[in-house]
UniProtKB/TrEMBL annotation:
GO biological process: DNA recombination; DNA repair
Localization terms from the record: Cytoplasm
Organism the protein comes from: Romboutsia hominis
Family: Belongs to the RuvA family.
NCBIfam families assigned: ruvA
Gene that encodes the chain: ruvA
InterPro entries: DNA_helicase_Holl-junc_RuvA_I, Hlx-hairpin-Hlx_DNA-bd_motif, NA-bd_OB-fold, RuvA, RuvA_2-like, RuvA_C, RuvA_C_sf
Protein name as catalogued: Holliday junction branch migration complex subunit RuvA
Length: 200
C-alpha cells in the first residue's frame, strides 16, 4: 500500500517514530538502527511495510531497502512476527545478520532479543538459501574470521576430549582449518592429520 513516506520527523521514541507528511502524522514502528540516524525536525524518507492483522493495522519503517528486505525475510520465518523482526534488526545490521546466517552462527543469532537457540536454528535453516538473493552486502570480516575462530576453538576442544594433548590439537587444527569449513570438517581433517603423523 505504501512504498515509502517522505516527510518531517516530528517525534522519536525507542521503538517508533512519527513522521509528518501533508499535515498527517504517521506512526511508524522501527528498529533502533533506523531510529539512531534520525533527528526531530529533519526531512527523511522511510521505506514502509504495512502490517495487517485481524485487530490491528500498523506501519513498520526502514531507512534502507536492504533493511526492509531483511525484515521481510525474517518475518517469513515461522513464529517470527514484526515485533521480533524489528528487535533482531535493532540487534544487528542486515549485513551482520546475513553473515551470521550464511556462516550458520547460531551463537550470535541466538543473542538477538526474542531469539533463542531453536529460533536461531530455524532462521538459519529457512533463510540460508535466500539471504544472498537480495543484494545485501555482507561484512567480510564476519564471514571469514569469526566463524573460523569459533570452529577452531570447538575443534580443539573435541580433540582434547579424544585424548590428544593441547599442543597436538592446536597444531592439527591450525594445519587443517580453512575458510568455509564447519567444525565437523575441521575435526575430521585434524584426525586424519594426527593419524598420518603418528604413522611417520
Amino acid at each position: 500500500m505504501y512504498s515509502y513516506i517522505k516527510g518531517t520527523i516530528e517525534e522519536i521514541y525507542l521503538d517508533h517514530i512519527v513522521i509528518d507528511n501533508n499535515n498527517i502524522g504517521y506512526k511508524i514502528n522501527a528498529s533502533s538502527n533506523t531510529i539512531k540516524d534520525l533527528e526531530i525536525g529533519s526531512m527523511a524518507k522511510i521505506y514502509t511495510k504495512l502490517i495487517v492483522r485481524e485487530d490491528d493495522m500498523s506501519l513498520c519503517g526502514f531507512s534502507t531497502k536492504e533493511e526492509m528486505h531483511m525484515f521481510e525475510l525474517l518475518t517469513s520465518v515461522s513464529k517470527i512476527g514484526p515485533k521480533v523482526g524489528l528487535g533482531i534488526l535493532s540487534f544487528a545490521t542486515p549485513g551482520q545478520l546475513g553473515a551470521y546466517i550464511l556462516s550458520e552462527d547460531i551463537a550470535k543469532m541466538s543473542k538477538a532479543p526474542g531469539v533463542g537457540k531453536k529460533t536461531a536454528e530455524r532462521i538459519i535453516l529457512e533463510l540460508k538459501d535466500k539471504v544472498d538473493k537480495n543484494n545485501i552486502e555482507f561484512e567480510p570480516t564476519l564471514l571469514t574470521q569469526a566463524p573460523v575462530a569459533i570452529s577452531k576453538d570447538e575443534a580443539v576442544d573435541a580433540l582434547l576430549a579424544l585424548g590428544y594433548s593441547s599442543a597436538e590439537a592446536k597444531e592439527a587444527v591450525d594445519k587443517c582449518k580453512k575458510d568455509g569449513l564447519n567444525t565437523e570438517d575441521i575435526i575430521k581433517k585434524s584426525l586424519t592429520y594426527l593419524m598420518s603423523k603418528a604413522l611417520r
